[in-house]
Amino acid sequence: MATEEPGLAEALRLQAMACAALGSTQYATLIEALRSDVERGGLVHELLAHRPEAPLRDALILRLLGGVHHLVLQGAAPELAERYPSTGGDGATINPDAFLAVVARNRDAIADALGRTVQTNEVGRCAALLPAFAEVARSTRLPLHMLEVGASAGLLSNWDRYRYECFASTYGDPTSGVRMTDRWVEPFDLAMPSVVRSRAACDIAPLDTRDHDSRLRLLSFVWPDQQRRFELLAAALEVAAAHPPVVDQADAAVWLEHQLAIRPDATATIVFHSIVWQYLARPTKERMRQLLLEHGSAATRERPLAWVRMEPAGAVADVRITMWPGASEQCVALTSYHGLDVRRPTDDGARS
How far apart are CA 220 and CA 17, in angstroms? Predict the structure, then answer.
């Protein structure tokens, strides 16, 4: 049963709680102050209250915060830069009056930001997806053909070009600037007998990592006091400079229909996505399920198909694999939404 979308003031309260729970004290405190502005009919109320987007479901609050962060990263808001750790600031409480002053003098830029969807491309999620990719590789012993849905800038599609160190098990390029070493709370086997032979990706509004403003936009959606996330994304953008991801602009179902029809022989095809499913329209999701079932039923051991997804399961996300032939399903990991605290599930029925 669908839950009712909260009003703007309540959405701000809930977003502040979410930021606090995910470790961003700066944003949690700032959002609470902005809630007071909304309750007295101030600038944030004027900008957000009558927009067609839902404030929580469509991440309207994060669009506003990202738009201001984008200005900070551009050097257009020095009074905030001294507080934002992402620009060398001290991480102290952000003055809400200074924040609102930046919004007021950059209304056109903020209006543009409010019309754009949030694009995080959270690279840390690769740590949670990797055990699933390794399981497919071990069970098929075939090269991999990767198809990413909802790829944003495609940084997760470069997953095999990063370095992972999970207790005694390692994988990836030891010289990579993207290193993940403390994301697992228990050992996982990352052994990968296969290589990525080919890859493709799609997004309804993809970002090009070769474009300076697109890179800034990605960085702007990382919460400024979460320096490790910021540095990980910056490192992934450096990898993308050498290996630019190609992300097709397309509806996920239309794109997947074409890609599954041409998937290669003697290769294990993996369709994957992370924190995307909730944003897809119902017809798109229904068509994707139908396509996966149709092509899965025709899969063979020489041409297998796997569906790997990291999607919400309450307070955490779970990582699931459906493998064809056989339509077997398993939950391989639980994780935070940012790809931290990766652990084995205790109950494979964690999400219906």
Answer: 20
Measured in degrees and rounded to the nearest 5, phi and psi for residue 229 equal -65, -40
174 and 252 in a single domain? The answer is yes
SS3 45: helix
pTM: 0.90
H or E stretch covering 271: strand 268-274
Q: Which residues, 6 or more positions from 63, have their beta carbon under 8 angstroms from its beta carbon? A: 113, 114, 116, 117, 118
Q: How many structural domains compose the chain?
A: 2
Q: Are 187 and 166 in contact (CB under 8 A)?
A: yes
* Angstrom distance (rounded) from CA 217 to CA 207: 9
Asked if residue 344 belongs to a domain, the reply is no
User: Which of 205, 134, 204 is CA-nearest to residue 169?
Assistant: 134
SS3 247: strand
Average pLDDT of the residues in 207-215? 93
Angle between helices 60-74 and 8-21 (to 10 degrees): 60
316 to each of 2, 99, 343, how far by Cα in Å? 19, 31, 11
End-to-end CA distance of the chain: 13
Who has greater pLDDT, 21 or 30? 30
**Domain around 241:** 123-335
Q: Which two tokens mark 298?
A: 């025709």
DSSP state of 177: S
The verdict on 239 and 271 lying in the same domain is yes
Structure tokens at 219: 């960085």
Q: Is there a single domain that holds both residue 137 and residue 269?
A: yes
Instruction: Determine the pLDDT at residue 120.
Output: 83
Q: 137 and 78 share a domain? A: no
The tens digit of pLDDT for each residue in 240-256 reads 999 999 999 999 999 99
Amino acid symbol at 43: L
Confidence of residue 352 (pLDDT cuts 50, 70, 90): very low
Q: How confident is the model over 88-129, as pLDDT tens digits?
A: 999 999 999 999 999 999 999 999 999 998 888 999 999 999
